[in-house]
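Hello Y.,

Per our agreement to keep a running log of every chain we model this quarter, I'm adding this entry. I've kept the format consistent with earlier entries: sequence first, then predicted structure.
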Amino acid sequence: MEKIAVVEDWETSNIQVFWGEIAPCDHLVQVYENEKIFLDTLEGFAGTGFLANDSVVIIATSKHLDGLNARLRSQGFDLNALTAADQYIPIDAEDLLSVLLVDGWIDEKIFNNFIADIVNRAKQRNGRVRAFGEMVAVLWEQGHCGATVQLENLWNQLHGKSPFTLFCAYPKTGFTQSSSDSIDLICKQHAKVIDGYARPSTDIYYRSA
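Predicted structure for the entry above:
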């Protein structure tokens, strides 16, 4: 049985309530223990977005897009209809990074033009957008630590100009035993931290960064 971490420092909320009450200016992060925990969180983020009539942008690896799509379809969501209406905009993170990453750094002009266009496109429905970005985790895994922090800063700058709910996630395996400072650095780029340990599927544990 997987060990459950202590939770004294964390607040808890019902998953539907938590994702229903997130603010359009929230920037959240999760450092997760395993794929199931991450996909549980991502499914809650996207699914409650659809139910709230938000537009949902998911920039994730093809593996995670496939996993998320399978879960959403099993919940009865018509992804073809949602995509056609621009309520669901899935983007392959690795394909996008192949365009954005130039000489080990993110090209700010390309990022701002592309991502701003995607967010503006998503906002055309009713102005409410929630976006998930996994490019930071891919960069970190590839050893582009400076570019990871740069990309987090670019997201924050765009987020400040055009508020939307933003969620990022990193696998804990991407950090070494001695990298607690790196985890702290990443978390401080965000407003809220979502716990990445195994929890009841109905609950979210979180704290301020």
